[in-house]
Amino acid sequence: MKRIKLVFWASLAAVAVLWFLADPTALRTAGIFPLRSAMVQLTGLLAITCMSVAMILATRPRWPERWVGGLDKMYRLHKWLGIGALVLAITHWLWTQGPKWAVGFGWLQRPRRGPPPDMSGLEQALRSWRGTAESVGELAFYVAVILIAIALIKRIPYRFFYATHALLAVVFLVLVFHAIVLVKFAYWATPLGVLVAALLIYGTWAAIVVLFRRVGANRRVAGTITKLSYLPEISSLEGEIGALQGWPGHRPGQFAFVSTDDDEHAHPFTIASTWNAEDPRLTFVVKELGDYTRRLPQKLRIGQPVRIEGPYGYFTFNDDLPRQIWVGGGIGITPFIARMKQLAMDRKDYEGRPNSQAIDLFHSTAQYSEEALAKLHADAEAAGVNLHVLYDPRDGLLTGDRIREAVPDWKTASMWFCGPPAFGAALRADFAKHGLPVDRRFHQELFAMR
């Protein structure tokens, strides 16, 4: 989370500092209208920076994924940038409109315009588009506010959010034109102008990729559904995909986007199997959590072609500590299933060699399935993992105290959590209170793409 915050604030700080260096007298002006001009420029530059970086991240680029800790973290940053763009755009709009309203109410007097300054041909050409840029920019602002609000309001169905969210790419392209015309012309010859131009160019390319539905195109492979098994007790569907063509392999804990036809967008699911190049198959366990997942048992069939995009994520259990504590809440158990299968394979290859780390897996669930738990116990035994299952109605809720009681040397461990975000946040805060360095040792999958 620290890295997400660092990228977010560093992006804004870099633009603000370069703006101040490019125009050091901007905030020393007297009067509301000179201040208005400066703040319109600053807030506009910051807003388009947020939108540009958010648009770039929407293409799921590889280069920042490892640094921020996985695609789930990138999407969290994408969300923060969207919120930042919304706040800054509203502030920008208020600075443009507020003084006008004050003049209309008679609270302020509009200053007299002086003679036009000498301008180059390019500056004159841009100025001739000023009225158009202001008009389309204001319209794009209103549309952006609506679309970002749709993205942030979780009560709005995901399918409607998905159908409308790509329109932000069109809005962004309009705002690129708005920015090119209205950014103070002298800024373009400064480091600020170079940075903003680079962001606009990269962001424009990203918007085109989004509009042509080419996000992740170079990481897509085709496959076929080979097995389906529905567990009604826990409202979950287990599916196996084979006949993979070109899948690069994955590590336990990673996830992929799965789509079944051209009319349905891809959904992210954690991979619940390890990778064997000699038997290329992927297993997914999907819990009914919304309209889409509830329809899957009726929609999917054996032999159906699918597309897989990935792998993504860095929830991959990499550390050299003597112990790990895993916590899987509900369907959050899936990355741990994949890791246990990998450990079991390693133990089999090396004649039952013990794990290099002691591992305790806590699985807290509100639904009970003898079949699912039997598979889980078998995986844990084969992997040499200490399994603790808590059925909430019978055993009560899993807490930090219960984990520490079961694992006395928890201070030597790293923690890996996948499950409900509020549950993870509570455990993180609890262990931080008891002295665990959570910034380095508490790993949480932020599995929310919205």
Protein architecture, described:
- With 450 residues, the chain is of the alpha/beta class.
- The protein folds into 3 domains: 2-211, Up-down Bundle (Four Helix Bundle (Hemerythrin (Met), subunit A)); 219-312, Elongation Factor Tu (Ef-tu), domain 3; 323-444, Nucleotide-binding domain of ferredoxin-NADP reductase (FNR) module (Rossmann fold), CATH 3.40.50.80.
- The chain is 51% helix and 16% strand.
- It is built from 16 helices and 11 strands.
- Strand 8, helix 12 (370-383) and strand 9 (386-391) form a beta-alpha-beta unit.
- Helix 6 runs antiparallel to helix 7 (158-165) and helix 11 packs across helix 12.
- The longest helix is centred in the first third of the chain and has 34 residues, at 71-104.
- 35% of the residues are buried.
